[in-house]
Amino acid sequence: MPLRNRVTPFGEIVAVAGRGTLMGNRGTLHNREREVVRDWQVRRWIACRLEFRGRHRAVMTRGSYTELFFLDEATALAAGHRPCFACRWPDARAFAIAWACAFDLSPPPRADAMDGRLQAERLVSTRASVSFPRVHPAELPNGAMVTFPTDESDRSAWLVQDGKLWRWSFAGYSLALPVAAVKEAELLTAPAIVATLAAGYRPRIHASARDG
Predict the structure, then answer these.
(1) Are 46 and 24 in contact (CB under 8 A)?
(2) Environment class of residue 111 by beta-carbon count within 10 Å: exposed (0-12), middle (13-18) or buried (19+)?
(3) Which residues are CB-contacts of 17 (< 8 A; sequence separation ≥ 6)?
């Protein structure tokens, strides 16, 4: 049975085979049996490279942080994670610079300042018990993610990319629609991250959204 360590754009942690293209963590979430028993421990939610300086880890080691996995960076951002300053320094620096541009800050913010704001936005806007902000997808930058019903039972996530909406799955993106075809949706990506995307940050997008 696969471990419960894959993350959806809604921030949910589920058990699905396959690890995705990015790893991340929210602290130690698992017990001795490698079962996830809480959704987060610390406010530093980061997205990391799968490989870094030849390091090897046994997943969900006792007493260590819980390794989480994302399809791509757009998924990680929608779930509330930001680039790691240790293993992804160039991306993290670019993210901080774009954040500074979005909010007219100088110098670029430190990780703790961004994490404080993201934690507040995660707790009020990205949990199932709270309504998501309503937005017009055509006004969103590349890399943002939204949800809207396609039928009464559907709760899919969609990526805004290159004038299209791409339907998310654990395997990749499919079923592209013109972004203008959907007049209103609920925003999954935290507002501060949307502003950072609009200010120029370019997340790593799964190849399926480029190849169609």
Answers:
(1) yes
(2) middle
(3) 2
Helix, strand, coil percentages, rounded to 5, for the chain:
25, 20, 55
- With H, G, I as helix, E, B as strand and everything else as coil, classify residue 78: helix
Q: What are phi and psi of 141, to 5 degrees?
A: -80, 160
Per-residue pLDDT of the chain (212 residues; tens, 9 = 90+): 899 999 999 999 999 988 899 999 999 999 999 999 999 999 999 999 998 777 777 889 998 999 999 999 999 999 999 999 999 999 999 999 999 999 999 999 999 999 999 999 987 644 444 567 899 999 999 999 999 987 766 779 999 999 999 999 999 999 789 999 999 999 999 999 999 999 999 999 999 997 65
